[in-house]
């Protein structure tokens, strides 16, 4: 069932953006599927102007691609794309963890520990949208403490493209509990013990494990496509 847009609180554009983003990440729309404006207007009961603004935002997040002669479609990632993204992500997040352990000040370490408390408390029982928001805050704290603008800007682009895959990995059976343990290891190494090598390895291990789940899911979808 499509989400219901509330006519109060957040502006319509923000509500529709949140709902359509969640639908894409939850695979309500298949990779490569056209996003037809008229149908989206009916789905969310809003104007074409709102839908076009939302689609532009999702294009900037790499969740939607604009294809000549077809219009906006849900972004697709091949297995090779995914493998390459996780390889680069692992290297950069490993560097971010190491830099955090070396450079983060007291406030930044406290922010990461606070983000980890939310992970422990809420992550396993949260829905997809909330899980992604919790991880975004954790990574935001980690990258902020790394104090490297090139790492920050590069990872921002990689995380945008990986978001589709994260939607699959965080919902995989047992993955949530493993993610909590892995993020706790990152926090302990980077913010508590300030062990540069251990922080790098913990970050790299978390990405490697996520990659295994994502690639397996892509393989399963390739051999058993949805009807």
From TrEMBL:
Q: Does the keyword Transcription apply?
A: yes
Instruction: Answer yes or no on keyword Transcription.
Output: yes
Which SUPFAM superfamilies does the annotation name? GntR ligand-binding domain-like (SSF48008), Winged helix' DNA-binding domain (SSF46785)
Entries under CDD domains matching the protein: WHTH_GntR
The protein's UniProt keywords, in alphabetical order, are: DNA-binding, Transcription, Transcription regulation
Which residue range or ranges hold the HTH gntR-type domain?
Answer: 10-77
Which PROSITE patterns does UniProt cross-reference here?
HTH_GNTR
InterPro entries referenced in this protein's UniProt entry, alphabetically: GntR_C, TF_FadR/GntR_C, Tscrpt_reg_HTH_GntR, WH-like_DNA-bd_sf, WH_DNA-bd_sf
Pfam name, any one: GntR
Stated name of the protein: GntR family transcriptional regulator
* Species of origin: Saccharopolyspora cebuensis
């Amino acid at each position: 069932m499509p989400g219901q847009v509330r006519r109060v609180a957040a502006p319509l554009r923000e509500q529709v953006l949140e709902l359509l983003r969640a639908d894409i990440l939850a695979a309500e729309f298949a990779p490569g599927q056209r996003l037809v404006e008229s149908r989206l207007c009916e789905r969310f009961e809003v104007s074409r102007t709102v839908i076009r603004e939302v689609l532009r935002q999702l294009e900037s997040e790499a969740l939607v691609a604009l294809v000549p002669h077809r219009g906006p479609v849900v972004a697709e990632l091949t297995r090779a794309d995914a493998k390459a993204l996780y390889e680069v992500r692992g290297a950069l997040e490993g560097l971010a963890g190491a830099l955090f352990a070396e450079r983060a000040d007291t406030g930044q370490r406290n922010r990461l520990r606070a983000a980890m408390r939310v992970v422990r408390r809420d992550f396993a029982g949260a829905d997809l949208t909330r899980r992604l928001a919790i991880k975004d805050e954790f990574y935001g704290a980690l990258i902020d403490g790394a104090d490297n603008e090139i790492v920050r800007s590069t990872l921002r682009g990689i995380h945008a493209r990986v978001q589709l895959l994260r939607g699959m990995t965080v919902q995989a059976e047992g993955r949530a509990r493993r993610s909590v343990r892995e993020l706790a290891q990152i926090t302990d190494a980077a913010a508590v013990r300030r062990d540069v090598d251990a922080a790098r390895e913990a970050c790299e291990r978390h990405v490697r494990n996520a990659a295994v789940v994502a690639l397996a899911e892509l393989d399963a979808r390739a051999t058993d496509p949805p009807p």
